[in-house]
Design goal:
By secondary structure, the chain is α+β, with helices and mostly antiparallel strands. Helix content is 27%, strand content 22%. It has helices at 2-13, 63-77, 119-122, 175-189, 217-221, 224-227, 246-256, 271-286, 329-334, 337-349, 353-365, 435-442, and strands at residues 16-23, 32-35, 49-56, 87-90, 96-100, 107-114, 151-158, 161-168, 237-244, 294-302, 320-328, 380-383, 402-405, 414-419, 427-434. The longest helix is centred in the middle third of the chain and has 16 residues, at 271-286. This is BAHD acyltransferase DCR.
Length: 451
C-alpha cells in the first residue's frame, strides 16, 4: 500500500504538459537582422535566464481564459519586442545576430497542469530546483537559440493559482530588458495601455559596433553535461531565499557606514554596497576560508549610463559587464564591514566608460566565451537587482505572490537580489552554495540580522 500512496503523492505534485503553441507579433514586421555586439557575446555559454512568477487565483476567469488573455497581450507586445520571436543567426562572416522573419515560429507558449501544487508551496524559502518542471529550457545553452525559440513561457495551472515560468535567451537580453518586456506585457494585459508605452531601443550597434567572429567549438564540446562525466563528483549545492526587512537593510547600511574608511574622498556606502559586503563576509565565514585564502566579489553591473555616449534605459540587449574585485579572507573578516564595502565601491566607481571600452577592446582582441568557473576563486557573484519592479508585474489578476530565479545559471556563490516581497526598502536575497556552507549560513544569527 505504501508504494501506491507514494505513487499517488508523486502524481499529485507532477507537472503535466497539456499543450504547446507559438505566438507571433500581431502585425507583419518583415525581415529584420540585428547584430549581436561585444556586450552580448560572452554569455553564449551561459544557460537561458529563467524566471518564475506565481499568482493566487483571484476568481476572475478560468485558467484557459487567462492563457488566452496572456497570448493576446503577447501578440501586441511582440510588435515592438519582435526580436524575442526570432532566432540567433550568422551572417556571411560568421558574425552572430538576431534574425526575425514573419515566417518564424515566434515565442513558444507551453500550457501545463499541476493540480497538486499550491501557491504557498512555491513561496517557501528553499530553492526552486524542486519546481524545475514549472520552467522551460532547463540546462539549455543560449547558443541553442540558433535553432530554438529565444523566449519560452510555461503557464501552469496550480491548485489555487497560476505559475508563469519564463526562459529568456541571455545572449539576447539582460535583466533590465527582461523586466522592461515583462512590465510592458503586463500593462497591455491589465488594460493600463493598449500598446507598449516605452518602445525598446533596438539598435545595439549604437553601444558598440565591432564585428566579432567567434570560434564556438569549445562551447559545443564543453556543454555542462559532458564536463560532469569526468573528474570528481561535483559537491552538492543548495539554494535558499533570505528575506531582509526594511529595518534589517537599514541596519546593515548604517553598520557599514558606522566606521568610515580613511578619508580619501570616498562617499557613504550605498544600500547595495552595504548589503553586498554583508553577504560577502558571511558567505566567506560560512565557507571556513583561511585568512590567506583569496575571495572574489563579482557584480554584473548595468552599463547603460556608464558608456559614452550613454544609452537609454530602454536599450534592448545586454548592456552589462562583470566587475571583479578580490581580497584576502583575513582582511575581509578581521576589518569592519567598511573595509570590504570600500573595496566594492572602488571597483564599481572605477568601472567608467574608459574601463568599459578597454575591457571590450581586450575581449575583442582575444574573444573568450565565459563559463561559470570564470567567476573567480571562492566567489560571491551578484546578478539581478532590487531596482527591478518585479512585484508590479500584474497581468490583471493581482500582483505576483512570489518571483524567483530558476535552476539555470546557478553555481557556488551565485546571488540574485530582488525587490523584497514586503515592499519598501526590503530586499530578497537568493543564494546558491555548497550544502555544508549553506547550513552554517542558515544558523548565522548575525547574517540573518537576528542579533
Amino acid at each position: 500500500m505504501a508504494g501506491v500512496e507514494a505513487g499517488k503523492e508523486e502524481e499529485a505534485t507532477a507537472v503535466r504538459i497539456t499543450g504547446k503553441s507559438h505566438v507571433k507579433p500581431g502585425k507583419l514586421i518583415g525581415r529584420k537582422e540585428c547584430q549581436l555586439v561585444t556586450f552580448d557575446l560572452p554569455y553564449l555559454a551561459f544557460y537561458y535566464n529563467q524566471k518564475l512568477l506565481f499568482y493566487k487565483n483571484d476568481g476572475c476567469g478560468e485558467f484557459e481564459d487567462k492563457v488566452e488573455k496572456l497570448k493576446e497581450g503577447l501578440r501586441v507586445v511582440l510588435e515592438e519586442f519582435y526580436q524575442l520571436g526570432g532566432k540567433l543567426g550568422k551572417d556571411d562572416d560568421e558574425v552572430l545576430r538576431v534574425d526575425y522573419d514573419d515566417d518564424m515560429d515566434g515565442v513558444e507558449v507551453v500550457e501545463a497542469v499541476a493540480e497538486g501544487i499550491t501557491v504557498d508551496e512555491l513561496t517557501g524559502d528553499d530553492g526552486t530546483s524542486s519546481f524545475k518542471e514549472l520552467i522551460p529550457f532547463n540546462g539549455v545553452l543560449n547558443l541553442e537559440g540558433l535553432h530554438r525559440p529565444l523566449l519560452s513561457i510555461q503557464l501552469t495551472k496550480l491548485k489555487d493559482g497560476i505559475a508563469m515560468g519564463c526562459a529568456f535567451n541571455h545572449a539576447v537580453l539582460d535583466g533590465t530588458s527582461t523586466w522592461h518586456f515583462m512590465s510592458s506585457w503586463a500593462q497591455i494585459c491589465n488594460g493600463t495601455s493598449s500598446s507598449v508605452v516605452v518602445p525598446p531601443f533596438l539598435d545595439r550597434t549604437k553601444a558598440r559596433n565591432t564585428r566579432v567572429k567567434l570560434d564556438l567549438s569549445p562551447v559545443v564540446s564543453c556543454n555542462g553535461d559532458d564536463a560532469t562525466k569526468h573528474g570528481p563528483p561535483a559537491p552538492q549545492m543548495r539554494e535558499k531565499l533570505f528575506r531582509f526587512s526594511e529595518a534589517a537593510v537599514d541596519k546593515i547600511k548604517s553598520r557599514a557606514n558606522s566606521t568610515p574608511p580613511p578619508s580619501d574622498g570616498s562617499k557613504p556606502f550605498s544600500t547595495f554596497q552595504s548589503l553586498a559586503v554583508h553577504i560577502w563576509r558571511h558567505v566567506s565565514q560560512a565557507r571556513n576560508l583561511k585568512p590567506e585564502d583569496y575571495t572574489v566579489f563579482t557584480v554584473f553591473a548595468d552599463c547603460r549610463k556608464r558608456v559614452d555616449p550613454p544609452m537609454p534605459d530602454s536599450y534592448f540587449g545586454n548592456l552589462i559587464q562583470a566587475i571583479f574585485t578580490a581580497t584576502a579572507a583575513g582582511l575581509l573578516l578581521e576589518n569592519p564591514p567598511s573595509f570590504g564595502a570600500l573595496v566594492i565601491q572602488k571597483a564599481i566607481e572605477s568601472h567608467d566608460a574608459k574601463a568599459i571600452d578597454e575591457r571590450n577592446k581586450a575581449w575583442e582582441a582575444a574573444p573568450k566565451i565565459f563559463q561559470f568557473k570564470d567567476a573567480g576563486v571562492n566567489c560571491v557573484a551578484v546578478g539581478s537587482s532590487p531596482r527591478f519592479k518585479v512585484y508590479e508585474v500584474d497581468f490583471g489578476w493581482g500582483k505576483p505572490v512570489g518571483v524567483r530565479s530558476g535552476s539555470n545559471n546557478r553555481f557556488d556563490g551565485m546571488v540574485y537580489l530582488y525587490q523584497g516581497k514586503s515592499g519598501g526598502r526590503s530586499i530578497d536575497v537568493e543564494i546558491t552554495m555548497e550544502a555544508q556552507a549553506m547550513e552554517k549560513l542558515e544558523k548565522d544569527k548575525e547574517f540573518l540580522m537576528e542579533v
